[in-house]
Amino acid sequence: MCLAVPGKVLELEGSMGRVDFGGIQRELCMDLLPEIELGSWVLAHAGFAIQILDEEEAQKTLALFREWADFEAENSLGPTPLDGVEPSGGGDGSPA
């Protein structure tokens, strides 16, 4: 199964960008999205930003991931990958 994760673009430098995933930041290649802007939400897969999302869609996806993680935590024997990760940003659009 392949999974793309939404994140918010915090920095852009050349073809690379620093993206926040609920408090975890990673560098991604932005070559597939030449129109990318600072503050955009993107879907990330395998080190690349592959699609631009609006914030509402990104937050819906993150909420589904949290719901999935909570279900796994209640129905499994060990911790989930999202244990300890806070939701991204407040109402002002800033990262957590």
What does this structure look like?
- Strands 3-2-1-4-5 form a five-stranded antiparallel sheet, with helices on one face.
- It has one helix at 55-75, and strands at residues 5-13, 16-21, 24-29, 41-45, 48-53.
- A hairpin with a 2-residue loop joins β4 (41-45) and β5.
- The termini are far apart.
- It has one domain (5-75): SH3 type barrels (Roll), CATH 2.30.30.
- It is elongated and about 45 Å long.
- The protein is of the alpha+beta class and 96 residues long.
- Helix content is 22%, strand content 33%.
**CATH architecture descriptor name:** Roll
Number of helices: 1
Reported by name, the CATH topology is SH3 type barrels
Determine the fraction of residues in helical runs and give it as a percent range: 10-25%
Report the C-alpha radius of gyration, rounded.
14 Å
Q: What does the overall shape look like? A: elongated
Poorly predicted sequence stretches spanning 5 or more consecutive residues: none
- The structural domain count equals 1
Overall strand count? 5
Compressed to H and E, one letter per element, the order equals EEEEEH
What is the residue-mean pLDDT, rounded to a whole number? 85
Strand order of the largest sheet: 3-2-1-4-5
Structural class: alpha+beta
The biggest sheet, with number of strands, parallel, antiparallel or mixed sense and barrel status, is: 5 strands, antiparallel
Our measurement of the CA-to-CA distance between the termini, rounded to an integer number of angstroms, reads 29 Å
Top CATH class: Mainly Beta
Secondary-structure blueprint:
Layout: E1 5-13, E2 16-21, E3 24-29, E4 41-45, E5 48-53, H1 55-75
Antiparallel strand pairs: 1-2, 1-4, 2-3, 4-5
